[in-house]
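Example record for the data management plan.
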Amino acid sequence: MLSPEDQELLTRVGPGTPCGELLRRYWLPICPAAELSAKNPKKRVRVLGEDLVAFRDGKGRYGLVEAQCRHRKTQLYFGFVEDDGLRCAYHGWKYDVSGQCIEQPFEPANSPLKKEACLRAYPVQQLAGILFGYMGPKPMPLLPRYESLVRTDGTREVSVLPLHNCNWLQAQENSVDTVHTYYLHGHMLKTQGLLDDKVGGYYYRPIEKYEFEVVEEPAWAGIRKVRHYGGDRPEKEVGHPAIFPNILLSPQGKKLVMHFRVPVDDEHTYVIWSEFTPTEDGATVRQRDEDIPVSYFTGYIRPDGSHDLTTFMCHDQMAWETQGKIYDRPSELLGVSDRGIVMLRNQLKQQILAVQAGKEPLGVVRDPKLNDSIGFKLSHGQAEMARAALKAAAAAE
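Corresponding structural encoding:
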C-alpha cells in the first residue's frame, strides 16, 4: 500500500504538482488529427488539468493555447479561425499558433499590451493520424516514433474510447497487473457464453508463473510482462510492454495497438488507441494521415447505469472506474501477484524525484538516430494474434 503522501504524489497532475511536472516532459495525444479540419478547425480540450483550445489555422498550422482570451477572458473556442490565427469573438484580439497576440482592434498601433497579451501555448505535431502536444519546458524532446506509428507495411486506424471517470494511474497500473486477464476477461466472457478460442480463450488458461522486466533503454523505458501458461496449450508469452509513463503496447488479433492514457485532470482519463495492421506479405501501403479512419466507442454504460461487460474494453473500464475516481491506495491489500504494480509505482516516484532534482526522466528521446523507428522486440505466444506482425517485422529488417 502507499502512504497518503505518496498517493498524492503519484496521482495529482495539475500545473505545479510533482507528477504533473513529470508528465509534462512527454508528448501527449490531444485528439485525432481528423477532428480539426477546414470545416471544423477548433476543439476544446482539457489536459493535465488545463483547459485549452486546439485549432488549425487557414494555412494548416496547428495551435494549442489556453482557453481564455487575455483581454476579458472570453472563451476562445467561440472565436473565428483565420489564415494566420484565432480571433476572439468578444473584441477581436487575434492570436497565432505560438500564442502571440498579432492584432488588437481598437487599441493604439504600438500598444505595449500586445506583448503582454501572449497566451500560454504548446507545440503540436501530427503522427499516425493523431495530434500530440508538448506542455513541458524547453528544449522540447523529439516526438517518439514508435514502430507501430511509423511502419509503412500495413494500415492504421485511430480509436477513441469514452471518457473514463477515474485517475490515469488506475488505467496504467492495469497494464502491469499480469494476472487480472484470467478472471476479468476470460472467466467473465465464459460466464456470459461469449468466450472464443482466439482471444478470450487465450487468456482463460492457467497462469503458472509470471515475471516482470524493468526496461531502461535509451529510446524507451517501462516494464515488460512475462507469463507462463499451462493447460493444454503451455507456452511462454513475452510482450505487452507498459511504456513509461502512460502507454501500453498490446497485440490484439493481427493488430499492434498502442493505448495512450492521457490525464484530463485528477479524476478523468482520455484514452486513444493507434491500431496498426501489417500486411500479410509485408507489402508497403501508402496511407496518408488524412485518410486514417477514426472510430468512437460507445455503449460502455447500460441504460440502467451499470457497466456493460461484454468486451475487454468494458471489463477494464468497469474495474478502473469502480475503484473510485482516485483509487484509495493507502487502504489496499496487495498480494504477491501485484509485484508489477509496485514496480511501476516505484519507477514513477523515482522519475518524479529525478525531475525535482533537475534531471531528465526516463524515456525522453532527444537523439534523432534513436528515433527513426523505436521497436520493442515483441514475442507473443498466440500465433493468431501475432503471426502477421512478426512476419512483417522480419521482412522489414
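Summary line stored alongside the record: DSSP finds ten helices and 18 strands in the chain.
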